[in-house]
Amino acid sequence: MRALALLLLVATAACGRLPMPFERTPEGGAPTELTRSPPARIVVPPSTSLGLTEGSARRFAVLLAEALQEREVPATAASIAQPHYRLLASAERSAGMVRLTYTLVDADGASLGATGGLRPLPAASWAGGEEWVLRQAAAEAAVSVADLLARVDASRRVAGQTHGEPLPPTLRFGGVRGAPGDGNISLARAIRAALARAGVVVQEGAQAEFDLEGRVFVTDLPRRQQRVEIIWTLTRADGTEIGTVSQLNEVPVGTLEGLWADIAAVVADQAAGGVAEVIRRARAGG
Fold this sequence. Notes:
The chain is of the alpha/beta class. The protein has two domains: 8-35 and 168-284, Double Stranded RNA Binding Domain, CATH 3.30.160; 42-159, 3-Layer(aba) Sandwich (Rossmann fold). The chain contains five helices and twelve strands.
């Protein structure tokens, strides 16, 4: 499924149009921007808190590390000396289902944040270590963990700023509205991670330098096509609009009615670059 392409970036605070550095490659593949990885190493040790046999716990650790690698997160289930982070997994069973929680800890064992899987898993299949449920859990966890890592990394960049250096921009994200399928959730999660990789610190529930909201508009067209437009609106803390990033494409009817999956990641990476450029120009222009 082809990702939505970024066709237009408009900055109302700057003059005219922004450049378009996030178009598809000539071969139709993903932009090279997608190959960037968070500067971290994660070890995923087999957990004794998952309600799995030792063999299944080791298998899940390998699958989780592989799923993170697919999202450009450098992770391994092997034991390495002095990793940047460790990812600890635990499970809670209730009403025939299992909910998983993942905690990111630093080299000293201090918790940096926690996140959960996207949905509960059938307890019987999980306890039996069935391959399909281990793979599903790993794939869904990788989305949340990559988001968590990006936010942790961004926060550490802010904390590590030396005196006299400009602080990275801070942004409060108001979510996404109007997307079909799971687009609102998937796009929101993906844009938070993409903004962090672009050097923008997303602050939850706190006053920030900028605010960002996403809106998705779907219009039916002839020949069973739909026009999908995604508009990211960036404002200052006082509500003054400084720019928008607009993404537009036509897709067959129903293409985005289900899981957005990798489409959300590509859209978010493209949009985050545009948002970062609008912020840069706004800061430069006062």
